[in-house]
Amino acid sequence: MDQRRPLIAGNWKMNGLLADGVALAEGLAELSRQHDGLPPDAAAEVPPDVPLALPCDVLVCPPFTLIDRIVQAVAGTKIAVGGQDCHEKVSGAHTGDVAAEMLKDLGCRYVIVGHSERRADHLETDHAVRVKAEAALRAGLVAIICVGETEAERDAGQTEAVVARQIAGSVPPVATPATVVVAYEPVWAIGTGKTATPEEAQAVHARIRKELDALLGSAAASGMRILYGGSVKPGNAAELLGQPDIDGALVGGASLKVEDFWAIAAAAK
Ligand code: PGA
After folding, report:
1. Contact 74/60 with Cβ under 8 angstroms?
2. Which among 8, 88, 180, 206 counts the fewest CB atoms within 10 Å?
């Protein structure tokens, strides 16, 4: 019995001017409306191999500049919108930063924190990530907390130790399955076309769940969704998502194409 509903999340990163972003969201919204309901003639256009009701939650995380428009574009569908980062504070003198409350105010339901690109580009530590996750919870957002080892760490046999340390340092002790999602993204697999094999990914996900168990207790650990990320595509999604501890995907490049992203969502169990 598995009570973890898969989540397929698109991380658009720093991509999309207004027209492209809105077109992408409108394309997804149209598919979602067809699938979830509706007029029989619209439903007839759905490709026959795609199930009518998707067995997963679907989320898009556009750049801050597009969030307001994307929330409007997906209104009336089940597609959720999230931010890609947030500041720890509610407001104040933090030039260029965006508070979790601001994301919530625009209609976001999720925010990604601690993505490896932020850890690398902005020197975010585990502690900084945890404080951002706590800000997300304070604002009523679900925090998607990212962890993952570099290629050098994997080559040195440190993968499990690194992700265990990141989980212990980045996940707030009050996290529950309703408020936090973990994303395992091996840094060497992001945007490279290299993917962990389903077995490699499963082994790390199981290790993460063990660490969550130690931190949060078994009920929270067994209910918490752990997404895989790093070059997820329509061609490898079903196998990855078929692993027992992989509860969805955080998708970068392939989330920028309507058909690819939808095919990944349709591959969720
Ligand atoms: P990718 O990115 O799918 O382009 O590898 C994933 C991510 O960084 O979230």
Report:
1. yes
2. 206
One-letter amino acid for residue 244 of the chain: P
Read off the CATH number of the domain in which 44 is found.
Answer: 3.20.20.70
CA distance 239 to 208: 19
- Residue-level pLDDT, tens digit, the chain, 269 residues: 357 999 999 999 999 999 999 999 999 999 998 877 655 444 445 555 555 577 899 999 999 999 999 999 999 899 999 999 999 999 999 999 999 999 999 999 999 999 999 999 999 999 999 999 999 999 999 999 999 999 999 999 999 999 999 999 999 999 999 999 999 999 999 999 999 999 999 999 999 999 999 999 999 999 999 999 999 999 999 999 999 999 999 999 999 999 999 999 999 97
Active-site option among 115, 117, 124, 205: 115
Residue 2 lies in a domain: no
Ligand 1 centroid distance, CA of 253 (Å): 6
**Inter-residue contact 101 to 111 (CB < 8 Å):** no
Q: How far is the CA of 13 from the centre of ligand 1 (A)?
A: 9
In a domain, 1, yes or no: no
Give the range of the structural domain holding residue 229, as residue numbers without chain letter.
7-87+96-266
Tell me which residues have their CB closer than 6 angstroms to ligand 1.
Answer: 11, 185, 190-191, 229-232, 250-254
Residue 232, domain member (yes or no) = yes
Q: Ligand 1 center to residue 252 CA distance, Å?
A: 4
3-state secondary structure of 113: strand
